[in-house]
Amino acid sequence: MKSRPTIFISGVSHEFGLFRDAVENEVQMKGCFPENQPGFPPDYREVEEMLRRKIDEADAVICLIGFRFGAEPANRPDDVPRRSYTQMEFDIARELGKPVYLFLSADEKVRDKPRTKLEPQDAEATELQLKHREAVQGANHLWYLFKDKQELRNLVAEIPIVAAADFRVDVQRILKYTPEYLIGREEDSALLDAAWDQVRRPGGESGSPDVNVLTFVALGGEGKTSLVAKWVAKLAGEHWPGCDAALAWSFYSQGTRDRGDASADVFLAFALRFFGDEAMADSAASAWDKGKRLAELVSERRTLLILDGLEPLQYSPTSPSRGELKEEGLIALLSSLAVKNAGLCVVTTRYEIPNLNNYRETTAPQHKLPQLSVPAGVNLLHQLGVRKNSGTQQEFEALVEEVKGHALTINLLGKFLVDAHAGDIRKRDLVRFEDADSEEQGGHAFRVMDAYVKWFEDEGEKGRQAMGLLRLMGLFDRAATADCIAALKQSPVIDGLTDPLVGLGEAKRNIALKRLAEANLLDVDRDASGALLSLDCHPLIREYFAKRLQEDQPEAWRAGHQRLFEHLCETTNEGEEPTLEQLQPLYQAVSHGCLAGLQKQSRELVYCDRILKGTGPDDFYSVNKLGALGADLGALSCFFGGDWRNVSTAFTALDQSWLFGEVSYRLKALGRLHEALEPMRAGLEMGVNQRNWNLAAPVAGNLSELLLTMGDVNAAVDVARQSVNYADRSREEFVRMGNRTTLADALHQSGQSKEAASLFAETEQIQADTQPTYPMLYAVRGFRYCDLLLSAWERIAWQSITLALGRPDSISAGAMLDEIEQRGTRMFAWRSSYDSLLDIAVEHLTLARVALYRSRLEQRPLPDPDEPTSHIALAVRGLRDAGQQDFLPRGLLSMAWYQHEHGNDAAARETLDEAEQIAARGPMPLHLADIHLYRARLFHDKKELTLAEDLINKHHYERRRNELNDAKNAVK
Fold first, then answer.
1. What pLDDT digit, counting tens, does each position of 324-360 carry?
2. Dihedral pair phi/psi, residue 448, rounded to 5°
């Protein structure tokens, strides 16, 4: 997607003023910036300088040429020929080499209708203009005749630079929340204006860094979305000045409920398509890679990106990771934009974002939105229609103070007083704010909703119909589509929920919807024909009705969700290869089904059969084909309650074990390692308590691997020893082999290499006995064994750099490296259709490492890492595609060494920086130690050596002890 071009438009104002306006509108619609010179200073030289600057900044010039000479500059020097302003604009454009598109009126009648009688132009001016018309037709083939405004617009639209303009805007998700009144937010709006002015005029005189990401933080209902929506509406009304693209997205879901089932996957896919990378959007690449790619696309132009309501994707205030982003795709996006962004990203959220703390004093400030001041709150009440003469100024001020300036509460209360009590402030006593729970999110707003509900229900049939429609919103975590509303309204009646709605005609429904919309209780979205598309409301209002319905009418709550579950299952036709967007109704069905108490049906019939499309080796469609780890984790969370240990008792022990494993896998793959520990330990505990060794053994192995990744080396060894015990009891040979290599790898990292080597050899004998045609360890197990075998030669290769030691015995080095290379080559010969992307990638990595050490120890040529078919390039690309964040740093480390060997230290540093980002967010301290050690040795950085030593000591990473000592000796 290209930046928006600027088109300078020239034309005599009193001849073509309306025509020029039509051209401006056309180029704006096509995505270009129109520019002209509306006024002129008296001095000729100032005129020329001004025009030259404006035209130089333009990408093309459109000249409307009629029969009127037009205005001309005064004080023209004697040696300068007589030229009008428009003729000067043409001359300057040609001189600067700008593309000039000429549009000539067909005759003198093609012009604006004069408002007053025109002064006749002198004969010389008439002749000069006629000669100008003749000259331009011979000087430029890009000229056209037009006979009216419509033809002119059509011709302008076909100009290549206009037709190719690629301005994209999709902001309806935020514009629909634009308030009628925005009061008391002048300073906050000024922050947005200032940030956008920096985008339009970068490198200003302020001396402060440009703002790349601007975050507004406030509790629900304080007016964050209203502020941004009003500002975006203003930009749209000004034809998006300085903007090359604009996208707004709302993450609001689940109101204030912390269900943990929100995901950024759909946003990432949509945004990647919006900005032109459909291949990445539809790929199984990791969320991190998708976020990084999206940041590249967003940052290269003056893009306005709005991320509204980010809190569902942040850890809750009660979490040890309070406010941190759960989604690695968003971490990649926002951290990248904080570093580099030609545009502006605006974020709204209830919680501060610690992930951006490093930039909050520079490029990514986080602004706490204050509560409305008392004067602003009083003014808002007046604007909403609460009568000034209905009470004293003190009564108005006391009310605003009582609700603590909460914007949503003031809006709701003002509308309630106007609708129910003719705007009488004295009726505010009907709302019992003293009952509001100060700890409850939106407590004051809930008390207003209590009053609204009572008023509607006391009003009779019309009131109950309106309240019935509004009450349905409590069943949804997002906008309710028209088909879902229709399904709920169908017979039979859901007692306590749809009683006033079944049989409700369209006319009465529309009257009720209009009333709710006018009260600012409901957002009604219709298409151009007036047909209903969806209903939505503020998340706190959704939360209010969800809470009331679930607590007061649990049977209606379950029945409503069951109706929606059945409707979505029946009406969704996802096809064989659906996109993530096409799967969304099924993800929603899982949520509704679980809330209806249909956990087993939701898992088996929807999640496993239709989202995963099976659970065999070639299945798991949503993960393996779409990379939808986040969306899948959201669905899986519906089968849990409160935390990742509390799985639904509706499932059998076998199904519970499967759910623990699936959640653990996704959390680990998403880099949420601490969270993955919880379900993994729960699954292990379940297996051990039931003496189900076939269940306990693989879980224990996975837990050991996770503990090792997180740097708890001693615990990883202990759990791995237990896992071998469980595996031997299970008598499953592949589990026995897998857990032995897990233990051997943990021993290797802890420095117990002899025991590790013995255990690998024992495991390889089991492999040979079990699969005689494949007598050596392969895939990840083989990679771990090769990692041990290569460790001695890796150290010697480093010594040749850090200590400048001579080559070792070439015969012994060559023989051992030959053996390891043969192992790697044989793994490829044994490849089957069941091999995972990870298995293939680590096999490439083994061969890439052999080649690297050979180049150092035997002076052999080293393959170019930029060559796509080289083992190192295939390894890194494969690890990215596999989405296993705990393995990717291994490939990046070797890639950085390759890049250094080829003299590209800048690329090596960048690769190590990427590896550090991945390892830090895990956290993966053993990888971090390796990264610091690599930097210390490749770039002779003593500070990095100290950081590496601290981590090696803290985590008992004895595998690197000798390499650390070598590096320390080198700097003495």
1. 898 889 999 999 999 999 999 999 999 999 999 989 9
2. -65, -40
